[in-house]
Protein: DUF5686 family protein
Amino acid sequence: MKRRIQSIFPVCLLLLMWPMLVVAQPPYTVSGRVTDAATGEGIPFASIAVKGQTTGTTSDAEGRYSLQLKQLSDSLLVLSLGYQTRSYPILPQTTQLIDAQLTAAATKLQEVKVYAKGGDPAYRVIRETVRRRSQFDPAQLKAYEYDSYTKIEGYINNFDQKRKNNKRSGPIGRLLGKLPAITDENGKTAVPVFISETFSNFFARTDPEKVKERILKSHVTGVGVSDGGLIAQLTGASFQQYNFYRNSLYVLRKDIPSPIGSQWETVYTFRLKDTVALDNVICYEIEFAPKRVSDLAFGGTVWIDTLQMALTQVDARVDKRANINFVDELHIEQEWGATSSGLRFPTQTQVTIDTDQPTPRAPGALIRFFATARNITENQPKEVTFYDPSIELADDYREANAAFWQRVRPDSLSSDEWRAMRVVDSVRNVPLIKAAGEIIKLGVLGYKPIEPLHIDVGPILYSYANNNVEGHRFRLGLRTNTGFSRKWLLSGYLAYGTQDERFKYSANIEYILNRKPWTVIGVRRTYDLERVGVSADNIGNNSLFAAYSRFGTIRRPYFQEENLAYFRREMGRGFTQTLALRNRTFEPLFPFAFQPQVRDDNQMIRNSYRTTELIWETRFAPDEVMLQNDNVRVSAGATRKPIYTLRYTAGVRDLFGGEFAYHRVALGMKHSFRMGVLGRTYYTLGAGIIPSTIPYPLLFTPLGNESSFYVGNAYNLMNYFEFICDRWATVQFEHNFNGLLFNRLPLLRRLKWRELITAKVLAGSVTSANLAAIPPTDAKGQPVAGFSSLSQTPYVEVGYGIDNIFKVLRVDAIHRLTYRDNITPSGIAVTPFAIKVSGWLAF
Structure:
């Protein structure tokens, strides 16, 4: 027995000591030098990776390296830019020396650049990454589609911070401190005010360039918002596209250069920090920062695959030193995964926007965007017509239970996120917060809904005006909403002037024939006071200026009765056709006369008239995104491609009392583009012709501006009705440098001002027949005021200004270069120089 114990004891002892022996074994060490096979010189910063493992390192300035391994692999990979990758076997030895010799890659050089010896190797990596962009950019695919999940959270924070001298917070902070709240990731109190989840299918193709999002399910809850279709569209994948392979990212209406875009070397500095493993991929970890801290550019870290030189992950930030309003920090984190074709695709994106406090006592806000892409399908393009409209809501998009969201969420919600979703309902039902939400909604939409009647009251902006003709003008407007009908839209207003004691009105009926493609038909009847030179045709969608034009002294006023029937249809993405029949009268309240000159049996002088017009308009906006706000279509704007408009108007004599036969053709183009670090340029071109003899109110009247406010689509030093044209060409130009100069001046940098320049040119003329059609006196013998026309010299005004003063104000100094001594027919002298202000909230 004693012998048996003695024979078993060593075995037991060995088994007990085996774990310690394993741990005590030294790690495997592989070392050596990487050299050029032709010259024998060491290759600095070459990548050394172990096949099948996440372990790796880089060579030093002499090409030497040393690598510690916990377990062996079959081979060692050695690679460097400009050289062919080599593989060497690893022997089962504790210490091994592997000297690698790399052969130069047989690549035809397109360009030779000389860099200082010892420069950071990150520049070589980024240069090669930029060169290979076309190989990995998902925009190079013929088509792709994926399932998208997006989540947006909004919080109010920074309201419980201690103030100086231990003063207690302001009244808003004290109110927020009483509301249900959560604790954010920084341990600070935050009140959730908005949460949305959207699940959709996203489609894209490149030739022609089309995108489409089909929103399947959406849930929105928050202060001042309803679970409506417009919010569902705004919170989907269409507005969460961030591609760092593009030259710039369009975020918060700002163009921010990408660190791997074409301007990488102009805007950024780079530093190779380390070589790390991300999901079994050996990556260069490279830090980047703006060359100037005040530039609108990212700072952060990018991870580049060492084998393919492809983007794997990016962590980018823009802090408050950059020229973005109301933003303390913008943070984008993005993960890129390889697709079946070898391209890279952003599979997960998180954007955090931490706003600053507008005043020392005001709270801040925190907004988080989270988006994922799953089930990516490549190179299976749909028919072109499939992509219209660009955003589409499923009929049952509101109908989704908790089990559905649990299934489509990429990860289960954290406890704080679950609590935030419960707390936001409590916050939105607090009476004071609920009232604040309604005020915000009224200010944004302009309408106040009356739910039991399914109607909206507004727009509030037009409710009151005061002028020399009407005195005090009061107006009440109404429209129906989807609670009334999803097919019929009824709207109108009733107005009354205390001085002229006349009622004005408008009634509009619109019927939606089809939502895909969008097709409507409608009729409208209006009777109201108008003024020559300021009409809906030349004001466009500038609602603020339209409301302002009802105030003050109205020169050349007239009453107009208008009857309009129209048909509008979207024929394809951005391609809209409108056909209309319009009958209207002109009843002037000022001395006016018109005498036909040719081809008119009635040569009598007239002081009023009626016209009947057939109107055909084609609008092509291929880059424009249209949103569905209940029964109304809303444009989300276009950022890259121009918008074209062609409009033809034909006057028809003897149809519904029309007195004139004439033709009018007008063409317009509107566009903006980025000029790199120089900022963004906006321009509008227009041209037209009226080859007919008609009363001058029917000719082209460029929009003047006699107010103290700057108006973007007006000639700001031209008086109302100063010029008339029947042939014209216009150019309106504005370039905003986005603080290019002021950001470099220490005393002005903190103000975040942005410098800009403007120029507006009008060339035109009037035929002798239209000039001769104005008699010297009217039928009552009163002198008739004519109009001014341009000579061969065009009208030109130029300006320069400062934007973003106190984050809301803009000041423009404008010089009128031509017709500086002009006197309008109304006896109003022109102003050759003026300073005008305007303002809006902008990032």
About this structure: The first strand starts at residue 28 and ends at 36. The chain has a mean pLDDT of 83. The first helix runs from residue 2 to 24.
